[in-house]
TrEMBL record:
It comes from Sporosarcina luteola. The keyword Membrane applies. This is Transporter. One of its GO terms (cellular component) is membrane. It is found in: Membrane. It comes from the Bacteria.
Length: 439
């Protein structure tokens, strides 16, 4: 059997895992979720839920992945021979495949905006109209989606050391630096402090059951658990690394980037008299308008879309890696071919999502367009079920000796983690799953 690749360092693994978690969920979804749910209270609940619920589930994926030392399907077969738990791996693979099929569409939108920003073609007053014209143009969206997938394939085909780890090592630090630069510029605008107060001074009238559920869901999905991405990444980790510390570092980095995204966006929104409750259009409609009205706005707009592209790529390479790792079965001589074959298939499956806002806009699917249907299948069904099953597997199927051997934490922490993944996390996931169909 071929020797499985490993990360060359702990920091390489942490940056790659954090990159998988820090994507559009942290940079795009977190600000508009906070903006439409009262700001500071949502932020507080998000932090609590990330550390209390999301972190233990993330650690469960790490434990199962390193224990299995293989792709998700094979790892679960090895850890529970003769049982059907390996179906979790197939569920994660299918969910990742579908996510990347429409995620790459959004990646293409980002490339379109970045190209326009570079050649100064975002100088307009109708950013809503510009956004609608871009996503309705079939040639542009398909070309941009194809370029985004090629970038993703190019990184994944080079493997863990030469591709994913190397890319994460420079993309993630640049992401942090760019965000800090933009945050400094945002908070120095006249009137920016109103945005800071919105983000950090609690308005307790928003402390409701609905806000709690939305914050719990955001924490859960922003950590990228439930699709076996973290399980797959952990399978490349050596036995010397401390899983608890790595999971904590990934969670903290995710919180940090989410808060930085809020600091970039909300001070600028308030400084220029915009509404924080604009919803999903904050990035593509509101932010270009904001950058267009500030000194050196064109430069900062380019920086923003570069870092957004970095964040999106770090997540897309994790999702493609799930599919590729299952296909190659530790045969790295097959990696390049598998990356291109699966990448092409994902692109083809994503074509209806790319055309959902143009030539296929009149086609109705459950939940809305093709794009909406793919999003519903994954975010409201695939990911919650996957995380629930992983939590149950780690809590009840793996023996205490196995989990303790992987965790190597203080006995009290081992027991606390076991209790959470057995009872608290599954209950929280079930609540989110049910509530998602009524919100």
């Amino acid at each position: 059997m071929k020797q499985r690749e490993q990360w060359t360092s702990k920091i390489g693994f942490v940056l790659a895992a954090a990159g998988s978690a820090i994507g559009l969920g942290a940079i795009w979804k977190f600000p508009y979720m906070a903006g439409t749910n009262g700001g500071s209270v949502f932020v507080l609940l998000f932090i609590v839920c990330t550390l209390a619920i999301g972190l233990p589930i993330l650690l469960a994926e790490f434990v199962v992945g390193r224990r299995g030392q293989h792709d998700a399907v094979t790892s679960l077969k090895r850890l529970a021979p003769g049982k059907q738990w390996h179906l979790i791996g197939w569920l994660g693979l299918g969910t990742s495949f579908i996510i990347l099929s429409f995620y790459s569409v959004v990646g293409g939108w980002i490339l379109s905006y970045l190209a326009r920003a570079i050649v100064s073609r975002l100088d307009t007053t109708d950013y809503g109209g510009l956004f609608n014209s871009i996503i309705a143009n079939p040639v542009e969206v398909l070309l941009a989606q194809a370029v985004f997938m090629i970038l993703t394939i190019w990184i994944v085909q080079s493997g863990i050391k030469g591709g994913i780890e190397r890319a994460s090592r420079w993309m993630m630090p640049l992401l942090f630096i760019f965000f800090i630069v933009l945050a400094i510029r945002s908070v120095t605008l006249d009137g920016a402090m109103e945005g800071i107060r919105f983000l950090f001074v609690p308005d307790w009238s928003y402390l409701t059951g609905k806000t709690f559920l939305l914050a719990l869901g955001q924490a859960f999905f922003s950590l990228s658990v439930g699709v076996t991405a973290m399980l797959t990444y952990a399978s490349y980790l050596s036995k010397e690394e401390k899983l608890g510390q790595s999971a904590f570092n990934v969670s903290i980095l995710n919180i940090f980037i989410s808060l930085l995204a809020g600091i970039v966006i909300f001070p600028a929104v308030f400084a220029l008299g915009q509404s924080p409750a604009e919803g999903p259009g904050l990035i593509f409609v509101i932010l270009p308008a904001i950058f267009n009205e500030i000194p050196f706005g064109g430069f900062f707009m380019i920086l923003f879309f570069i870092l957004l592209l970095f964040a999106t790529l770090t997540s897309s390479i994790a999702m493609l890696e799930i599919v590729v790792s299952t296909g190659i079965q530790n045969r790295n001589d097959r990696r390049k071919k598998a990356a291109w074959v699966f990448g092409l298939l994902i692109f083809i499956v994503g074509i209806p999502s790319a055309l959902s806002f143009g030539v296929l806009s009149d086609v109705e699917m459950p939940g809305g367009s093709f794009f909406d249907f793919a999003d519903m299948l994954t975010s409201r069904i695939g990911m919650p079920i996957g995380a629930l099953l992983i939590s149950i597997f780690a809590g009840f199927v793996l023996t205490t000796a196995d989990t303790n051997d992987e965790l190597r934490m203080h006995p009290f922490l081992n027991r606390a983690w076991k209790f959470i993944v057995r009872f608290i996390a599954p209950l929280a996931i079930i609540i989110i799953f049910i509530a998602s169909f009524f919100t």
